[in-house]
Amino acid sequence: MWDLAAYRVLNAEHHRTGDAWKIYPTYDFTHGLCDSFEGISHSLCTTEFIQSRVSYEWLNKSLEVYEPMQREYGRLSISGTVLSKRKIARLVNEGVVRGWNDPRLYTLIGIRRRGVPPGAILEFVNELGVTTAGTTIQLARFDQTVRRYLERSVPRLMLVLTPLRVEISDAEPTDLVIPFSPKDAAMGTHTLYLTKTVFIDASDFRTEDSKGYFRLAPGKSVGLLQLPFPIKCTSFTLAEDGKTVASVSAEYDRSGAKPKTYIQWVPEDSRKVEVRMYNQLFKSEKPDEVEGGFMKDVNPESETIYADALVEPGFEEVRKRAPWPEAKETGESKLGDGGAETVRFQGMRVAYFAMDSDSTPEHAILNRIVSLKEDAGK
After folding, report:
1. CB 297 within 8 Å of CB 283
2. Which H/E stretch holds residue 160?
3. Lower Cβ count inside 10 Å, N or C end of the chain?
């Protein structure tokens, strides 16, 4: 083993203690001793600290103090993003992202704010296993693990990003009992009050029908999730610009024909929310290798905001019962006392969502955690 420096003399002002000290302990001297004093069982380091294990073990043994163990593992990198603190600091300082906890970043506080559950992160790490070799994983693989975890553990709600009013002429006011999950009855149910007015997503309506299009159009029927009958469009009205559809008139299609597709909808008493749809922060798989540097690779469409989205009233119960998933040992607060990011649900046919920490009781903000498996256009 080589001779180790225990202290260094630095005749400079410290950012915390000012000029109170001139001598400072080195990393090799403090690492093992601090772990020993704090009762650490295992000090987990990346492989560049393998050489430091010799001094780590020797110093504690020589001083006859409690001896923790140091073990090394390979560094895990994720393609399509940057993990360097220096590079993230530049993104923050230049206003590309909101802060170190921006949901587009892969800092722990960033993916927490986005709504990724601790259990999904543990599942991802367990799938990879531990190795001393460096590993680079595509973002899609991480997203797939998160998606699979959420699929079985969070409730489902209906949400529309761009609401379009639909008047169903022959609909009778009634209460609909809707399950939070078609796969897990233990999640319970909630009630929606159906009236003649509902809202669908504007992307699910066309003023002109076409071959291969199975959603709503004049004279065409489409199924509405959880409703007993499909609806058929009888007419529509345009806004003052003469281009935008303002509302649709419809009636129940009682012919008995099974619709080729079903779309989500929300009732008249739904809540207005702001939805932030996140895409990858960078355009390429290797931002660092782009000519001009990683800042030249920033995706200008990494965030799309829908300020007038609507979510069904069941959202209030999901919010009160957070954290979701409702499971033991999730690493989060007790039921009914979770942070904003623990309010998670699947927006049917849209994506998985979680509440953002910027939300207030009056103004809920939803972050997209990950997309659904299916193409959003189906």
Report:
1. yes
2. strand 159-160
3. N
State whether the Cα torsion 82-86-92-96 is positive or negative: negative
Class of the 7-73 domain?
alpha beta
> In this structure, what token pair is assigned to residue 175?
């209460």
**What is the model's pTM?**
0.85
Can you give the residue ranges of every domain in the chain? 7-73, 75-164+173-192+263-378, 165-172+193-262
If you classify domain 75-164+173-192+263-378 with CATH, what class do you get? mainly beta
Tokens, residue 269:
């008493």
Among the residue ranges 102-116, 189-203, 324-338, the one predicted with the least confidence is 324-338
Q: What is the per-residue pLDDT across 275-323, written as a single tens digit (0 to 9) for each? A: 999 999 999 999 999 999 999 999 999 999 999 999 999 999 999 998 8
d(CA 299, CA 280): 7
CA 271 to mean position of chain CA atoms: 21
Query: What's the whole-number mean pLDDT along residues 161-170?
Result: 97
| CATH superfamily membership of 165-172+193-262 | Ribosomal Protein L25; Chain P (2.40.240.10)
d(CA 153, CA 199): 27
Q: Do strands 42-46 and 69-73 pair parallel, antiparallel, or not at all (unpaired)?
A: parallel
SS3 149: helix
Asked, colleague to colleague, whether 75-164+173-192+263-378 and 165-172+193-262 share their fold, the answer is yes
Distance CA 258, CA 250 (A): 17
Helix extents (H) in the chain: 27-37, 52-62, 85-93, 108-114, 118-128, 139-151, 314-320
Please report which confidence band the pLDDT of residue 328 belongs to, taking 50, 70 and 90 as the band edges. low
